[in-house]
Design a protein that fits this description.
single chain; 4 helices; alpha+beta; 62% helix; rod-shaped
Length: 238
């Protein structure tokens, strides 16, 4: 009994130590678990940060590229402004040249050609039309004038003959021949570009003129025509 009484405090102390050790171990285990959890969170956050850094670097590259494109665009806009300032006077000179050319050319379709030039002049004053469209219209007018030199055409109009305005039919062959014929065929005339005047045309050309008119109307297939042509007069010394 005496021995048990002596050992009892030792056993109690040992139990207390063991209990304390178990409690400490639980605390250590809990700390270890928490540390591992925090480590995993740290690794996950680190990976997210690395991904964000890559994303930010890509965004910086895109921003730099956009800034370069913006600078190029601004330079292009400046160049367009310069071109617009230069091309507008050019178009005005082209229209003036076209007007002079039509005035000196063989006088076919005078109203149509004059109206086309007047339309271009009015177009140039419009602020709601792009410069590109204005330039397209000017070039279109030049193209139309160019085509006249390669086509044959018959059209109706009016002509003063012996002081009286009469309805006539005009025949144009390129810019080489321009002839008129009254509806009854009593009078015919041809334009002399060298003298810049109309001259009477002999009735012997009546059948050729009529055939040419039918060809121009696409009523006959193209064929050889006998029509009067005025050759340029040689200059002195030639």
């Amino acid at each position: 009994m005496a021995q048990d009484q002596v050992l009892e405090p030792v056993v109690d102390a040992a139990n207390e130590i063991n209990q304390s050790a178990r409690s400490s171990q639980l605390t250590v285990d809990k700390i270890a678990d928490t540390t591992q959890e925090r480590l995993q969170q740290f690794k996950q956050i680190s990976r997210q940060i690395e991904g964000l850094e890559v994303y930010v670097q890509q965004l910086q590259k895109q921003i730099a590229s956009q800034e370069t494109e913006q600078a190029d665009l601004n330079a292009s806009i400046d160049e367009v402004s310069v071109v617009e300032r230069q091309i507008t006077p050019l178009m005005l000179r082209m229209i003036d040249s076209l007007r002079t050319f039509v005035e000196l050319d063989v006088p076919f379709l005078p109203a149509e050609r004059a109206n086309r030039i007047a339309s271009l002049e009015a177009l140039m004053d419009r602020a709601n039309v792009d410069v590109s469209e204005k330039f397209r219209r000017v070039m279109e007018a030049y193209q139309i004038e160019s085509e006249y030199g390669r086509t044959i055409e018959a059209y109706h109009g009016e002509k003063a003959i012996d002081g009286q305005l009469q309805e006539v039919e005009f025949l144009r062959v390129g810019r080489t021949v321009l002839i008129y014929k009254t509806r009854n065929g009593d009078a015919m005339g041809v334009w002399n570009q060298q003298a810049r005047e109309w001259q009477s045309l002999d009735s012997s050309y009546a059948s050729d003129v009529q055939e040419a008119l039918r060809i121009a109307r696409k009523q006959l297939a193209p064929d050889l025509l006998m029509l009067p042509i005025f050759h340029p007069q040689p200059q002195a010394g030639e």
